[in-house]
């Protein structure tokens, strides 16, 4: 009888101890310092990321990489973006994920005043983008060696055009009554979408090397459309106070895009990591028939530097903020970005 | 029996170890390290808090008279506004606080137009870049706890604010009607009264705040090239509801919903003119980080709906220290 009681108590003790160990394990995995954390999720870890990103047009780079004066170009633009991303660690070395962004963007260009015998026409255009972009579905594999010191991850995924990408018909206002008696003020509002309109495949790799207080990170991604895209643009004609719109179809190919990043993270405190990063993008091989002929979009590139931090607020909640400022580029409108993100983490299984 | 006791002891120790793993990382132990949720609504006697606040706004959109969010003047005119404030509060007693705020303003407005004369085959690019930098209007205030917060009652605080027109009230360095140095002050004296209620049920707090500001008549150049004209800005009324919560012992999330209304403004030209009343409903989430005596705050004011009012979000940052 004594032996049975002892066995029961030993079993209870072991069960509780195992449970505590599991909790401890889950707790220690969820509160891992940034520099110790692998690039991908642990087995059974569910991560939900969201936040807010504000971008404001900072510079415009021409084909030769010269920075243009925004005021002379009369261009102003800003974007509000809300990302959502979910990742889940199926195995310690295998992760699945999905992500999508909702955004609003406005772009205004130079006002034009045409003076002719027919009178004065003031013309301005406002481009708007609004809605979701494409749905990204991806998988990540971690190489099973030297995992205590480094993480090498190979990733692959596809961007699916789940929402309509074609622009809606523009709207406009016409004002005949203003301080020039013989003038007409026309304002066009173009209503664009964010989606690429074609499925795009993305493959990449990332590496994280860990030291006691430092982590070195780098990543490289390649993105390419699986087919040519088709969309429309809108032509307008002003005649006798009326504007007619015509929908013109065109084809396009976004070409091949490379994204690359290098970052250094310093674990200042157990709950605070500070990061410095470099981000680059290079795209080429794109074309469009928007002008009636197949015209290459040219080589596009941008380089930016960023600084940010991550705070471990609680075992389940992390907060991060980054500022990213472009410093060079070609053939691109470059935005500085201020991003605030939250990351919610849960262990769905005892490890 | 001994074995049973040992087993119980081991189970107990295991539980204690497991519990120990969930201790908080930082526990502020000093009253000067209390957070925006746990501190009293006015500073304690002899405490001094000083800091810098900054606001960044891209002047881009506004709510028109129909409540539609449209681009500023429906053109490519846009601007950047940055306001920095040096603020100080001091507790004269545990219930009575005085404050001073010295603002510095920088602003820049841009517009660009290309004029094409078709029959002369000429085109001209006209660009305007106006700035306005300098000290703004200084604000001094007092706040008094009428009812101290208890387990049953919320705190009730009343305050008075006086704003004096120390900022430059007139446009200067005028090149043309669109290119000049913007004023950095409003050019009038303002007197505000506020009444606030707060109830804290840790880790939460609920606030209801109201503010009324009366603007006295003033004189200033309303548009470049004109003479100084007497004017009277419409009075301002703000009511705010707030729910805040601690994410952990030293980070608090602040959620403010506010309704702001400015009354009709009057300009005393030879023929009296008015500008319409305007209002907005804003959401202001913010994070307050309390790291010992240092408080870092950052938030965003998001205009949700409104009429004749700016519709651009404002980004707010602050760094304070309690001495």
Write the layout of secondary structure elements.
The complex is a heterodimer of chains A (351) and B (323).
Chain A: H1 2-30, E1 45-61, E2 67-68, H2 70-73, E3 76-91, E4 94-108, E5 111-116, E6 119-132, E7 135-142, E8 150-160, E9 168-175, E10 183-192, E11 200-210, E12 214-225, E13 229-239, E14 242-253, E15 256-269, E16 272-284, E17 287-288, E18 295-296, E19 300-314, E20 317-330, E21 332-347
Parallel strand pairs in A: 6-10
Antiparallel strand pairs in A: 1-2, 1-3, 1-21, 3-4, 4-6, 4-7, 5-6, 7-8, 8-11, 9-10, 11-12, 12-15, 13-14, 14-17, 15-16, 16-19, 17-18, 19-20, 20-21
Chain B: H1 2-20, E1 48-59, E2 61-63, E3 69-71, E4 78-91, E5 96-117, E6 122-135, E7 138-147, E8 155-164, E9 190-201, E10 204-215, E11 218-220, E12 229-232, E13 236-246, E14 251-262, E15 265-268, E16 272-275, E17 278-291, E18 294-307, E19 309-310, E20 314-322
Antiparallel strand pairs in B: 1-4, 1-20, 2-3, 2-19, 4-5, 5-6, 5-7, 7-8, 8-9, 9-10, 10-13, 11-12, 12-15, 13-14, 14-17, 15-16, 17-18, 18-20
Features:
heterodimer, A: 351 residues, mainly beta, Porin, twelve-stranded antiparallel beta barrel, four-stranded antiparallel sheet, 2 helices, elongated, B: 323 residues
Your description of this structure?
- The complex is a heterodimer of chains A (351) and B (323).
- With 351 residues, chain A is mainly beta.
- Helices cover 9% and strands 65% of the residues of chain A.
- Chain A has a twelve-stranded antiparallel barrel. A four-stranded antiparallel β-sheet of chain A has the order 13-14-17-18, with no helix packed on it.
- The N and C termini of chain B lie far apart (59 Å).
- About 5% of the residues of chain B have low confidence.
- At the A-B interface, α1, β1, α2, β3 and β5 of A face α1, β5 and β6 of B.
- β5 of chain A pairs parallel with β5 of chain B.
């Amino acid at each position: 009888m004594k032996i049975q009681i002892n066995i029961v108590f030993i079993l209870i003790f072991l069960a509780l101890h195992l449970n505590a160990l599991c909790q401890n394990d889950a707790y220690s995995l969820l509160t891992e310092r940034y520099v110790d954390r692998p690039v991908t999720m642990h087995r059974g870890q569910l991560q939900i990321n969201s936040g807010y990103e504000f971008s404001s047009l900072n510079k415009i780079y021409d084909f030769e990489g010269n920075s243009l004066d925004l005021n002379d170009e009369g261009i102003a633009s800003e974007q509000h973006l809300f990302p959502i991303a979910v990742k889940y660690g199926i195995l310690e070395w295998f992760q699945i994920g999905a992500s999508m962004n909702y955004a609003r963007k406005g772009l205004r260009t130079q006002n034009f005043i045409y003076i002719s015998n027919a009178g004065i026409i003031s013309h301005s255009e406002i481009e708007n983008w609004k809605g979701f972009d494409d749905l990204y579905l991806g998988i990540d594999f971690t190489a099973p060696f030297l995992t205590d010191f480094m993480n090498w991850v190979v990733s692959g995924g596809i961007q699916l055009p789940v929402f309509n990408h074609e622009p809606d018909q523009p709207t406009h206002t016409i004002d005949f009554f203003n301080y020039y008696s013989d003038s007409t003020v026309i304002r066009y509002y173009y209503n664009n979408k964010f989606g690429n309109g074609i499925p795009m495949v993305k493959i990449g790799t990332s590496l994280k090397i860990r030291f006691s207080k430092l982590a070195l990170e780098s990543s490289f991604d390649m993105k390419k459309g699986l087919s040519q895209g088709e969309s429309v643009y809108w032509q307008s004609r002003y005649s006798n106070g009326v504007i007619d719109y015509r929908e013109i179809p065109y084809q396009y190919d976004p070409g091949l895009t490379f994204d690359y990043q290098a970052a250094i993270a310093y674990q200042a405190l157990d709950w605070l990591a500070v990061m410095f990063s470099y981000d680059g993008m290079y795209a080429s091989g794109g074309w469009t028939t928007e002008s009636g002929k197949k015209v290459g979009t040219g080589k596009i590139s941008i380089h930016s530097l960023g600084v940010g931090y991550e705070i471990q607020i609680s075992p389940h909640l992390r907060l991060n903020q980054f500022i990213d400022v472009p410093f060079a580029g070609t053939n691109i409108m470059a935005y500085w970005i201020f991003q605030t993100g939250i990351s919610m983490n849960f262990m769905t299984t005892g490890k | 029996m001994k074995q049973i006791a040992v087993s119980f002891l081991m189970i107990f120790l295991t539980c204690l170890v497991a519990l120990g793993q969930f201790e908080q990382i930082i526990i502020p132990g000093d009253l000067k390290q209390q957070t925006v949720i746990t501190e009293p609504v006015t500073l304690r006697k002899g405490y001094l808090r000083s800091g810098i606040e900054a606001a960044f706004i891209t002047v881009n959109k506004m709510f028109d008279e129909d409540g539609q969010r449209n681009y500023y003047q429906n053109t490519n005119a846009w601007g950047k506004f940055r306001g920095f404030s040096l603020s100080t509060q001091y507790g004269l007693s545990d219930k009575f606080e005085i404050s001073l705020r010295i603002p510095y303003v920088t602003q820049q407005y841009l517009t660009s137009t290309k004029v094409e004369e078709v029959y002369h085959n000429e085109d001209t690019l006209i660009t305007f870049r106006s700035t306005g930098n300098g000290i703004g209007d200084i604000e001094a205030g007092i706040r008094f706890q009428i009812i101290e917060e208890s387990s049953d009652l919320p705190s009730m605080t009343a305050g008075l604010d006086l704003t004096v027109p120390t900022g430059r009230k007139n446009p200067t360095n005028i090149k043309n009607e669109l290119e000049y140095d913007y004023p950095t002050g409003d050019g009038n004296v303002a007197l505000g009264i506020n009444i606030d209620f707060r109830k804290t049920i840790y880790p939460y707090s609920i606030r209801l705040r109201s503010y009324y500001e009366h603007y006295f008549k003033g004189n200033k150049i309303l548009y470049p090239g004109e003479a100084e004209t007497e004017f009277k800005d419409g009075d301002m009324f703000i009511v705010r509801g707030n729910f805040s919560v601690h994410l952990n012992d030293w980070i608090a999330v602040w959620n403010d919903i506010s309704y702001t209304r400015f009354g009709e403004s009057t300009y005393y030209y030879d023929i009296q003119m008015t500008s319409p009343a305007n209002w907005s409903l804003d959401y202001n989430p913010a994070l307050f980080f309390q790291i010992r005596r240092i408080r870092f705050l950052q938030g965003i004011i998001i205009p949700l709906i409104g009429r004749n009012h700016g519709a651009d979000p404002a980004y707010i940052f602050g760094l304070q220290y309690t001495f």
